[in-house]
Write a structure and sequence with these properties.
With 150 residues, this protein is mainly α. Helix 3 runs parallel beside helix 6. The chain contains six helices and no strands. The radius of gyration is 28 Å and the shape is elongated.
Length: 150
């Protein structure tokens, strides 16, 4: 008994849907990149009385921080960390830009160069194994930035 078997041709997909999906994905990614890079921040400046209160509050916080560091209550690393948080929160309260959650590169992308300079100065002492840096100079620069802020 002889059996005759017929084999079908190989099944293949059309390339057209794959190409369409690829093009749509590329367009979507380009759209996301353009949206991310074109993000503008609306800087809201508080009135003079409120700004003066904010400045006084943060200058008092810097005095407390300096006192804690001078009395060896906190380490240099902790002092730099609190100093970084302090200037970031100050900028947030005066401009309404949430720089507390920004990386150093994100801070560089916004148009506040003095903040980038200060935070980059804090980075090495805050994150390196051996904290180097002059905390007294850093806190004085921060105090100057806060007191001169308009």
């Amino acid at each position: 008994m002889q059996i005759k078997t017929e084999l079908n041709d190989m099944f293949s997909y059309s390339l057209f849907p794959v190409i369409i999906l690829f093009v749509i994905t590329v367009i979507f990614l380009l759209y996301l990149i353009i949206i991310k890079n074109s993000k503008k921040y609306n800087i809201i400046t508080p009135n003079k009385k409120k700004l003066l209160n904010i400045k006084n509050n943060y200058l008092n916080n810097l005095d407390i921080l300096l006192n804690d560091y001078s009395n060896n209550i906190i380490s240099k690393r902790e002092a730099y960390h609190r100093l970084s948080l302090s200037i970031r929160n100050f900028i947030y309260e005066t401009t309404n830009i949430k720089v507390q959650y920004f990386t150093l590169e994100d801070i560089k992308s916004i148009d506040i160069p003095i903040l980038y300079d200060l935070v980059s100065e804090y980075y090495n002492p805050e994150f390196s194994r051996k904290s180097e840096g002059n905390f007294y100079d850093s806190i004085e620069r921060t105090r100057m930035v806060i007191s001169r802020w308009k």
